[in-house]
Amino acid sequence: MEEKIAFKNLHSREYQGHKKKVHSVAWNCTGTKLASGSVDQTARVWHIEPHGHGKAKDIELKGHTDSVDQLCWDPKHADLIATASGDKTVRLWDARSGKCSQQAELSGENINITYKPDGTHIAVGNRDDELTILDVRKFKPIHRRKFSYEVNEIAWNMTGDMFFLTTGNGTVEVLAYPLLRPVDTLMAHTAGCYCIAIDPTGRYFAVGSADSLVSLWDISEMLCVRTFTKLEWPVRTISFNYTGDYIASASEDLFIDISNVHTGRTVHQIPCRAAMNSVEWNPKYNLLAYAGDDKNKYSADEGVFRIFGFESS
Question: Is the pLDDT confidence value at 51 over 90?
Fold first, then answer.
């Protein structure tokens, strides 16, 4: 049974700490900590009270020498986080100490990173359309593949036996894992596909495209079920809420769209002041973290992110 949320009664809170714009926000598996990665070459980990008013304590993860473009948490461990940077390294951190425990030197500027749902492997995509798979225990590459087309966001399915690449050709390439053997090419959009999200119930995945549409796909049939049409600019980032009933999508439009997955209808729009880089729902609560290119009145980066879904501001 789908839950009804009174979105109009919910508020956003702002979190300051970064010196430059925030590229990526991600929740840990218990939904108690949020990590933010920034152009200021750091990541930060914030302890978020879902209902409390506690001041958000944060810890800084320092060591990268270029922008921290994307980060993701270990799906099985609430305190381990992986960061991908333009400095060609991928780093693994302990969020309790703020210390880097592992580091891998890769061949290019890393822009996408994702964990296999069982926590054993990490996939990293770079600006040269090269995919690297790391074994998390040894923190060494076990697989490298260069593609002849633009590769954007990447994702495993819930069971970890399928791997998805979104491409600049408007397709989603479906590969069997671990052999990375091509299984299917989905003609998903009329322009490049930028982002992908897997629904937590494992029924669907969603793809956001430069054609400003979000498409929803049935994973077992590999068929498009519906499209979400509210945004007018290229879709940069999408996320399903923890029940799989709602999807958030964002772009250069000055709002984040929240739509009902089952009907395709918009249920709420969160106004924002800039193009968004990252939206992510909490895995346990209806809290949506979001970050973008916000500038202050002196046209310098604000370096903030926000969380929507609190009952009082």
Answer: no
Domain 188-313 CATH (choose: 3.20.20.70, 3.40.50.300, 2.130.10.10, 3.30.1490.150): 2.130.10.10
Spans of all domains in the chain: 20-146, 188-313
Q: How far apart are CA 56 and CA 46, in angstroms?
A: 6
Q: How far is CA 181 from the centre of its chain?
A: 25
Region 115-121: mean pLDDT is 98
Pick 20-146's CATH classification: 2.170.120.30, 3.50.50.60, 3.40.640.10, 2.130.10.10.
2.130.10.10
Residue 313, pLDDT above cutoff 90: no
**pLDDT band at residue 83 using 50, 70 and 90 as cut-offs:** very high
pTM strictly above 0.90 = yes
Nearest-angstrom CA–CA distance, 236 and 71: 16
Type of residue found at 15: Y
Picking from 21, 57, 55, 74, the residue whose alpha carbon sits closest to that of residue 294 is 21
